[in-house]
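Hi everyone,

Forwarding the result from last night's run.
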Amino acid sequence: MRVFDLATTPLRELNSALHTVAPGANDTSFEVVNPRGSHSVAVGIDKPVTVEVKGSVGYYCAGMNDGGTITVHGSAGPGVAENMMSGTVVIEGDASQYAGATGRGGLLVIKGNAASRCGISMKGIDIVVHGSIGHMSAFMGQSGHLVVLGDAGDALGDSLYEAKLFVRGTVKSLGADCVQKEMKPKHLKLLAELLEKAGATDVKPEEFKRYGSARKLYNFNIDNADAY
């Protein structure tokens, strides 16, 4: 395992090392100590490397991740795992606003709470939050899944497309075109799989409610033609 101490080593050296791992290399495990809230830690990974960050990070940690496994043993600032393509990002603490924004794939697990706009414009990412999420989460979510074991703030799923939302606790309010939907057996199976991947095996899929798009906001409706 290669260890980078950000108290003495420039962040650029860490990210450069992560970007230059040779295909098929055996030395793919990294440990980052003394992150001290540094921004853009472990961004742009495109190899199946493992990164353990021992402490909290600033904004855009693990952004654009494509195949890496990054665990933050602390909390994360805004934009963690933004535009993630594949791989896994785990935040052991809390995450600030717009966690997983525009994510296209992979799994983001937040063991604590997530602030506002979690999963905004998500495009295929799976996000599991063990705690609660703030307002405007999953705004304009196009695809993927957002699973919340706690509560959700105002305007959940506003202007939602086809992302699927599962909330175990209470939802303060639903956004435009977001409605509660029937939880079918296929959804229970899917949810069970996501909970297992995220290490949330102490809760049952039957405890959740499902939310999705009413499909009225972004489709032309001939009955309303005079209003256009």
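The chain has two helices and eleven strands.

Cheers,
N.
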